[in-house]
Amino acid sequence: MHLLLLADTHVPRRARDLPPVVWDAVDAADVVLHAGDWVDVALLDALEARARRVVGCWGNNDGADLRARLPEVARAELGGLRFAVVHETGQATGREARCAAAYPDADVLVFGHSHIPWDTVAPGGLRLLNPGSPTDRRRQPTGTFLTARAEGGALHDVVLHPVPPRA
User: Which candidate, 48, 93, 119, 153, has a CA 20 to 30 Å from the CA of 126?
Assistant: First the structure.
């Protein structure tokens, strides 16, 4: 099962649309996981129309229309793994232990908010993944997103992809 992990897309505030490389990744994915800060419900509609499946949550920049359609924490079992998707996890210090305690029933936690890519494993085995932002790089060299494969109860081929600058 091929996964695309997104967060902090901020469309249309930070970009008019997702970059073409991200739409290509949507087309290749079996499931798109989005960890909030969509900003406009139109992007959710577009992803749901184009992706095979979308698992997403709302973020702190998402209004009532998105919060009415998305949970604060989204959950899905994919490829034999239990995923939780949430926007905020708090400060980096102590994140692994804090998230392991908050999500004891998850194997993988996808989160956003910081726009900073993150890939660690908490004591006990919880994998924490933040794909960064494909549209608002902030202090990062480029925008980013993650792809991975979930199969047989394991996560494989986790790759952080840089988003090329717009021409």
Answer: 48
User: Looking at residue 12, what is its pLDDT?
Assistant: 86
Domain count, the chain: 1
| CATH of residue 24 | 3.60.21.10
Confidence of residue 167 (pLDDT cuts 50, 70, 90): low
Cβ–Cβ under 8 Å, residues 70 and 58:
yes
Q: What is the pTM of this model?
A: 0.96
Q: Which structural domain range is residue 119 located in?
A: 2-163
- Tokens 């993944």 map to which residue? 129
* Cα dist from 49 to 22, 27, 70, 87, 156, whole Å: 15, 11, 16, 22, 27
Contact 32, 24 (CB under 8 A): no
Rounded-to-integer distance, Cα 55 and Cα 131, Å: 15
